[in-house]
User: Fold these one by one.
Assistant:
Number 1:
Amino acid sequence: MGEKPSAAELLRRSSGDDCAGERAGEATESVSAAQTEALGGELARRLAGGDVVHLRGEIGAGKTTFVRGMARALGVRATVSSPTFVIAQRYRGERLDLAHIDLYRLAEPEAEEPDLLADYRDRRTAVVIEWPEESALLFGEQARFTVTIEDLGSQRRLLRCQERQ
């Protein structure tokens, strides 16, 4: 039985040119929550302050698990949980802060105050937006990265990552 590939190798395989420099369009299968977290950590190491990540996936797909890995890689020590009911949470990190925003419960983002989430945007904070379909209305810009997570069952996930050029 061969060695398991590292999270860095998996991310390179999953993202190709789009996120890590090889062939675009490939996907990575994660077989555990720990592996999904590790993949989140690999992406976080590429983030700079002000970067936006769109995170797509159905309820229960593993989005918060992925964000937990991002947070750990940025030096966040706090417990990371889904912001579904509070809309947004900010975590203080050593390298960067992380804003985790969940737009699932915003039925009409265009009806919200334009500055609703302005406090979560600054040059020291990377922003992750779950359910980003309407985020342009609140942020007015595109994401640097888009990550899609598909639940394959039994803790298996299929992850795709694209980087905007």
Note: Residues 7-163 form a domain with the Rossmann fold fold (CATH 3.40.50.300).
Number 2:
Amino acid sequence: MAPAARPVRPAGDGRHRHTLDGLHVAQVLTRAVLPHMPAAGRGAIVNTASEAGLRGSAAGAAYTASQHGVVGLTKSLAVLYRKQGIRANAICPGGTRTGIAVDAEEGAHGPAALAPHFANLGRVARPEEQAAAIVFLASAAASNINGAILPVDDGWSAV
């Protein structure tokens, strides 16, 4: 029997804005580089979303929504700018060794609530492994890859 669903905890404005930073940063950086790419006749945008952008059970609701936004932005850019030679792809890291603190609060998005969804996490990646995927997607070796959302998660998204 599945555990009882917990209500989505309302986030304060500051916390909500912080949660949406990943989407905001992707939009701001895209606006900064995109005007320079058509003149070159090519370009590659590689966003970093998250495993949370592939499913609804990898993180809290607000963070998951923001990561789905990064995925949607990436796919839209791929379609809108492909005729100008501009590609847009994203990686969706799974568990990665970082210094990011985990909110251990016992709430709707705390570790106790999310633990069952991490049972198939697999090996936790080093940041260099995520960077290698980004370098590949930005390279000429990926010249016909556009609109791809690449999980870099040791198979976690395949479960």
Note: The longest helix spans residues 61-81.
